[in-house]
Amino acid sequence: MLWKREPVLSFIVILLFSAGTYVIQDWRAQDAFDYSTAYSGDLKFRGNYTVDGDRLRGFAQLNDGPVVYATYRIKSAQEKEKLEQMLYKSTLQVKGLFEAPSPSPHRYAFNMESYMGKNGASKILAIESIYSATEDRTIFSKLSSQREKIKRHIRDTFPENLVAEAEALLIGEQEKMTPDEQRIYQTLGITHLFAISGLHVEIVAGLIYVGLIRMRLRKESVVLLMLVALPVYAVIAGGAPSVWRSIGMVEVVLVCRLLRIKLPIAQILLLSFTCYLFWNPYSFYNIGFQLSYGATFAIIFSFSFLSRQTSVVRIGFLITCISQLTLYPLLLFHFYELSLSAFVVNSLFVPLYTLVILPVNFFLFGATLVFQPLADMAFSCYEPLRSFIGSGMEWMAGLPYQLWTPGKPSLGMVLLLMASVFIFYSLAERGFHWRQLLIVLVPAIGLSVAPYMDPELKVSFLDVGQGDSVLIELPYRSAVYLIDSGGLLRFDQEAFRKRVRPYEIGRQIVAPYLKGKGISKIDKFILSHADADHAEGAEELFRLFRIDELHLSPGSDDTALMQDLLPYAAEAHIRFPGRGSSWQKRGINFAYIAPNDANYEGNNDSLVLLMEAGEFRVLFTGDLEAAGEEELVKRYGAALSDIAVLKVGHHGSKSSSSETFLTAVSPGLSIFSTGRDNRYGHPNEEVVERFRELELVTLNTADSGTIEVALKNGKASVRTMR
Description:
Number of strands: 23
Distance between the termini: 41 Å
Mean pLDDT: 89
Strand content: 15-25%
Largest sheet: 8 strands, mixed
Low-confidence stretches: none
Number of helices: 25
């Protein structure tokens, strides 16, 4: 704004309002509610609740009390159907207990405590029972009812493969979008197209305006009607920040037209920003809010540059570039990676969605309301086209090297990246030269190469709950090895319990840790054995990362779990190493010391890996049990002594960690990889006591979160993330 010579008053207003907002937010966050007792009373879910499978969850307002994050386990298909028909318009009478959010497994994973705090909640309310409901009679409940009717109408009248797109574009509902679809959109950098964006709102506002004018209403009457209609549309459309930002700006423009006041577009943006934050201070933390206002700010202050362009295609491409360039520090901070193809793909897909897909969905919706046979005829024409577009998107998303993954930048680096973008715009507006791009590229390249300048050897024991996953990063990022991926046991469930977006260890815990560290390629992926808690999460990792080699325990490829996995590993070189297999990288030795045969029978056929970096040695034992440990001691004896770090076998099960083995290896640090309050009781109390009696130091991922052991200049250090 400085190079635009905006009034100093604008900056003073922003500064004072920002300070005031945080004071209000801090005051609102302090409540005297008693969370120590059970709760019985009214609860009203906000509009962003989710019903997925047998889980109901979302932010809710207690009666005359604070905002909480409420969760409920649905008990039957009948109860689920009843809840879906009443939640959006009812206040519930519930009983439940307050809980603190579970800690994050590592610094790059989803942090429930932070998420709740940024939405004004401090506790989780675990609802035990819903004993009655009262229908609300407010204007918001009536609008929510209309939104629900539209959703049900779409699901009843649209073909199944078009429902997710129609809901996203017409009412901002993304419940039907699958994880695979999200991955494709994120890879191509077009996720914003499957939400109700500012451009979307402008199209709707234009249609309403033209329609009312065609009805020969006076312009003043049209403006007044739109002042009422647009907020109604915002509520029905889900009320995303981008929707309210756009509608807020349109409302200010309409009011100014009524009052014959002229305001610069920059001040209209500031006024919209101010009102939005005053209404909901917590929206400042919302990534959609940040991206919407950030992109709009960049485009507004690039008007003079864009006005010098004569080609519509060139203007569209420049708007895409300006938006992506402006927002990339924020995108990296939140998602740790950036779609490089977005600069080109958006230039293709923005016109396609604006001129074809969005209008077609409006037409199809209208046709289903007026004359279903017409809609069916239109569906028969549109479905093949949409299928062709979808196949093209899937093919494009499968192309390699589309994502730049430098890792999560620190707050200081984010500010540096933002400053570089600001300086670039300032200079480019006076006269663009290609060399000015160095102002942006140099900090970005510095962020990318930083891991390759790090001399530390790092071994991270990830907190994947009840399971194993270990990441090895060699000095100067010369290689990355992953041992196991964690995972969950999946059981057959009743149809109503099956979730559209099931919890996935690989995608939600392991992948964020790798991407947060700037890792996009795994040189060796070692699955110690074919148990779900070690290998079930591997499928997601093959979809998200380039993997050169896959190491499997000999004979384990015949198991059902590995048979399901192998199609995803088609591009990796698959090896079946056993005792005697070894390799060396940057002076660090890796050797498999078990198993000794290709007859896979379970835990005692786990791949056991010994890593040696001088005197620093780490032993990874998979789920090795006492019999396997005894065989190792007999074969290697003193060669296994003085292990620096031991990954305790089988999560500290009673069947592992025999006294003979522990005495032989004498580990300096032993790490249990277990889940909090797991149903197996790991680590077993007898085993824990055995470590105590032998005076062996232990850590548990259940207590410490992800544990990182780093070696630099021959000295080891331990860092925990909880």
